[in-house]
Sequence to fold (552 residues):
Amino acid sequence: MLNVQNLHAWYGKSHILQGVDFHVGEGEIVSLLGRNGVGRSTTCKAIIGEIEPQGMIDFQGENMVGRKPYEIAQAGIGYVPENRDIFPGLTTRQNLLLGLKPGQKDDGSSRWSLEDMFDMFSNLRERADVDASVLSGGEKQMLTMCRTLMGDPKIIMIDEPTEGLAPKIVHQVGELLEQIASRGVSILLVEQKLAIAMKVSSRVYVMGHGQIVFEGTPQELEENPEIRREWLEV
Amino acid sequence: MSLFIVNILDGLVTGLLLFMLCSGLTLIFSMMGVLNFAHASFYMLGAYFGYQISTYVGFWPGLILAPIIVGFIGAAVERYGLRRVHKFGHVPELIFTFGLALLIEEVVQYFWGKSQMAFEAPGVLKFAAFSIAGNAFPAYKVFMIFIAMGVFLVLLYILTKTRIGMIIQAALSYPETVQNLGHNVPMIFMGVFGVGTAMAAIAGVIAGPVLGTFPGMAVLLGSIVFVTIVIGGLGSLWGALVASLLIGWLQTFAAAYNLRMADLLVAIGLTEPVDVAQSMLSDLWTLTLPQVGPILPYLLMIIVLVIRPNGLLGKRET
Fold:
């Protein structure tokens, strides 16, 4: 479904991504692991077109390199940024509705409806009509993920969804990830915490210095202490 | 009392006129993160186009056509000018808009010359709407108030009640995230720029007959427009409204009441020198309120910035 080959990207003069290769299959949950600053978030930004990459990003047979972010989003790639970016001054409901793409309606024609979101997260229903900037950290994380889902993506890239959240909320995030996958949406999960990634992923990639340094199942990573020591543990 | 009411109304006219420029400028600033130095030039273009069209087909078609033409010019400036300069950073953008302001002024002088145009209010509005204790209030000013209020209400409706308004509001804070959700943000930017410049042009057409249509009109209003949006808080529509009205009234009242500094100084316990002209502080003793009127907005800006660095209703760092 998403096939990234030899992806390079720069921030100014620094060469951040130095030939990244990976793929995500239909309905698969794949995690991109690694320490801070190895280029995981940059990979997401390059795929969505926020920074201009070189290489190949094949999404359902079409190359996304050089397209504009809104075109890439319209093609079916969803992106949940790490800093959540809740739109201030708009209510929770309005934030969610902004996830709908141009021409898309909340009329049951897509995988997700506003009601689904409220059913999954009663907090969001209760606070549907308040300014979303007053939500708690956990609620904001749910809101950003739900907002991207409203646009009915075929694959969703989620950057550090559990960062700064209490264990109970992390568990909720995990449940949402499984719910997303059960509706046939592929997930590229960018994480620093191993626990959740190992639990939900079918495959994991480990990144180091702008390249993929390991690919395998969670089981294989579990059995490979050198990789974990060298590239993951702090 | 009657003079007070007349001043309230006059200040309202000035304030609302100012608001029509500030609202567009403040939205454009929030979205692009850059101040458009040429904004008041679009106001001037509006006045000149309005005048030119009025010489052929009268005032009313000019009021409609001039803002549309200027809006398209504004959109083109964003699409083919600012957007290309954007990737080089904010300083080149600022220089670009600064250059554009100079260019528009030169172009206006080339086609219309340096003298004031005979742009007049339409005949149907040349009567006194009412008079308060002998002070006639022209119908044209009433018309200006209604146009400005109408523009404000339409803008408020679009921004708060429509989907496109929600997208604009969201893009004011996080344009990249809005784009990542599948919305064509570059086109929205172009649209906001076009509408913002068209609003400045409406202000130009309705102000042209009252304040004069001449090549200096952009510079005259330009600096006060920046002061206003800084006072109101960059990016805040309500802030722009409050600050515009505040400055409108401040300027009108300062010009109307001939308060003397001497009275103030006496009131705080100083004695007026017998021969003021020979006194060392004669400039201070003879100062009057109308004289300091023009600098009051700048003074207000400094006070506001000291107390509230983000402006009266602004949220973001300036």
Remarks:
- Residues 167-182 of chain A form the longest helix (16 residues).
